[in-house]
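Contributing new records

If you add data, match the layout below exactly. Sequence lines come first and carry their own label; structure lines follow with theirs. Keep one chain per record. Anything else will be rejected by the validation script.
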Amino acid sequence: MKKNRLMRYLPLLVLLLSMAACQKKEYTQWIPKDAALVVVADPAHLIEEAGGEAALKELAGKTDHILLKSIASAPEETGVDVTAKAYLFASLNRDEPTLLMKLKDADLLEIWLEKMQAKGLCDKLQNRGDLSWTFFTEQGYCVFTKEAVMWVYAPLTPPETVLNRLSQLMKQEPEESFLATEPYKRLEEMKGSMAFYLSLSTLPNAAEVSSMLGLPFSLSAEDIRVLGTVTLSKAKASLQAQYYSEKKELADFLDRQSMDMHSLSSRFFDYIPQDVMACIALKLEGNGYSKVGQLPGVGALIENLSRFSGIDSERFLDSFHGDFVFALGAIPTEGIPPLVCYAQTADNGTRLMLKDGIAQASDFFGPAIKTLAPDNYQISMRGVGALYLGMKQKDFYMLSGSTNPLTPVQNPLSKSALEGMKGKLISYILINTDRIGDAESIAQEYMGDKVSLLQQIRTVELAVRPANRLELNIYFR
């Protein structure tokens, strides 16, 4: 009898549950399907990883973001649910990066915003349908419902445009949102306090990236996707990522390019001191002009020297096969900065190009070139110093202030404790901010007064490894 009565009410129960589900959507459904950048963070895990609540309060003093500052110092006052995941997303061709967080108590957030208004930090709270919102000068819009709060960094975008966009996102179904995509499924499987997804279609210079990756004209870096995790501590921040493509032809190309046999031998690191300002190491296979030629400063330097020496720079750079390493020391007030450049070559072609070019070179309006020994040359740069270049067996070298190439140094990069130096490498970039002459003034030129974070960074290194893996490490002072 009871069973029959339950069966009679079962359709009504299903209907009520369906209505309840329709009335309340998960806040993650607001992430647009065309999101080209999505960062997901587990606040509780992040706090623990960073060193507990004390570290969080220390972080609060270093950020200018009003809401994040309050969440870090007194989360209970903001109404934000710090036990739920937080998301940062941005869509392609939209200058509206958005921070999305779940709310525990919307009334508390409203009280907090009223306090911010009393301090003159934001406008008066307004309502539009299910949305409540206000504007913070130079920081964008704070928009919320009963379920979630969104902070949209769009200080120059009219309110109507922002609100229309968010209203559309609120109405979308799960299958219309980022939740229905393959990247979201991969993000959910990742462990740790923070994970991210990035589409390289967001890059303004995708064509240059395609060239540096050696992609054929039929393929583009815009179709490359990156998924990874971030870990934080007082000593460093680390990013582990893997890049891939959903286009089979590009995916196959990336897999072939990332095979273990393409790894750097890393032997040139024995000749590079640890205290360089910057170091770039690449694996070249006849594509030096497309890779090295795109490196800021490096490609231009080699091209100018090639021109002065009467050498075709494209043919010369493409003659490199194997490890290529360029390292730069602290820049002096005058003269040539300490620099070291080594490159492996495949055959005798590089030696012949260098020999024939210098034999025909004229020092008229250019540097004076001397042959010191077979395959060993000096280029005198009037008033600033000299460069020494040449060949030693199948290795090309270029040095400033030294005539003793391929000699191990006392504290080489190969013995460095840096994480990025460990394991197999396809390419590697190192920047030591301590060696940048006037880092603070350079930072202020680009960042204004917001240089506190940069001043805390000691070293940055980026490693590209086999199996399409990336690793970024930022070491703090």
